[in-house]
From TrEMBL:
4Fe-4S ferredoxin-type domain boundaries: 325-394
Lineage, broadest ranks: Bacteria, Bacillati, Actinomycetota, Actinomycetes, Streptosporangiales
PROSITE patterns with a match to the protein in the record: 4FE4S_FER_1 (PS00198)
Location of the Lactate utilization protein B C-terminal domain: 407-478
Species the sequence originates in: Thermopolyspora flexuosa
Domain LUD residues, every copy: 83-307
Entry annotated with the keyword Coiled coil: no
Annotated Gene3D superfamilies: Alpha-helical ferredoxin (1.10.1060.10), NagB/RpiA/CoA transferase-like (3.40.50.10420)
One GO MF term: 4 iron, 4 sulfur cluster binding
Annotated protein name in UniProt: L-lactate dehydrogenase complex protein LldF
One Pfam short name: Fer4_8
Classification via PANTHER family: LACTATE UTILIZATION PROTEIN B
Amino acid sequence: MGAPKASTGRGHVVDLGMPAFPRSSARAAADSQLRFNLRKATHTIRGKRANVVAELPDWLELRAAGKAIKDHTLRNLDRYLIQLERAVTEAGGHVHWAADADEANRIVTDLVKATGETSVVKVKSMATQEIGLNEALHEAGITAYETDLAELIVQLGDDRPSHILVPAIHRNRAEIREIFLDHMGEWGRPAPDGLGDDPRALAEAARLHLRERFLTTKVAISGANFMVAETGTLVVLESEGNGRMCLTLPETLISVVGIEKVVPTWRDLEVFLQLLPRSSTGERMNPYTSTWTGVTPGDGPREFHLVLLDNGRTDVLADEVGRQALRCIRCSACLNVCPVYERAGGHAYGSVYPGPIGAILTPQLRGMDTPLDASLPYASSLCGACYDVCPVAIDIPTVLVHLRARAPHEPAERAVMRAASWLLARANRFGAVQRLASRLRRLIPRRAPGPGPLAAWTDTRDIPPIPAEPFRDWWDRTEGGAR
């Protein structure tokens, strides 16, 4: 499903054939229907968020508390993960540690095979998308059925998610109707005849289609928004009830969760249960908040497995500037205010994590060895809107600049920087070049010759006219005698 994928040497899954962000975003920006869909959806969510956040007089204090809890947990991650493992085990669950995507996929595939089943239902999980779990299961002869409405749309349309919270944000309801009519029957119960594009009718078609899966599938795979170390409890927040069905009806539940999702206590969790709904869907309280702790005889799954996923996270943790990306609670608030995301869409980022948070998280998880990953830190205007709305105060612009310094640079770019360093090191050199530029100003073009990086730079920026007299010379001539 979607674009072909492969695993790199570091165990990270990357999309094959994805160009660097400037090329893919240029194509997306030329799609007027995509821009309309994105603008309508992001502005709606952005407005709802602003209204419910404004209701809380202590929002900034909550934000600071969320940041402090996350920072404390990351500094003591080893201790809290061991505490979590002990609590899950004592509650009857099984804990598995996965260093990378390949190991996580192997663990999950073996667990499903051990049940004898050939199909699973899934709760929306970015961690499983990150590691390409659906593709790994498919190769092993196991079919994964997405049950989140937006993920279902993406799966039926052989598409890829383009938003953290609303994976099918790039589709309008007319497009969704066509996808249901054309492909729903290939995956199970077909869409009803005469299906219109009314949202209620589309939701009812999805409900009837999914109910069959919920009642017949014996293995479920989930992620988790949070894990509470003191009790071994996992928490999933969702808006449709599909998560509750997946977490309670199957006989076996397998949860794949990034190691950074742990919080120390239930009291800490309470802070995020206020921050996340307001920042993500613009709601005061999440519609469905499901929690489970191990297994309970006669209630819910008979067997529970927790796969703790690293996949580059400890490398991120080692970077004192970049590690703040691990605070992210996947609310998508930064995407909804980002002027770049609004015009380029999520697919241009070539990652399950699009938008501003993806621009700093993906290059750290995957490395910057491909043109796509090396370009992501530049997929921003550095306007700072993402930092303003982040509920855990991730300073995304600062991390972007930090990653730009680490990104590989072209030989021509390095040569230009060395020349600029030599020129700016001495005032007399800089002054001489200014005077030369003033004398030759009529010969200097407003656009650099190209194609090439300099031509691309001048295509999007206005070069100010060169004055007839440099400022330094003017100052010496008019003010020099007063000193």
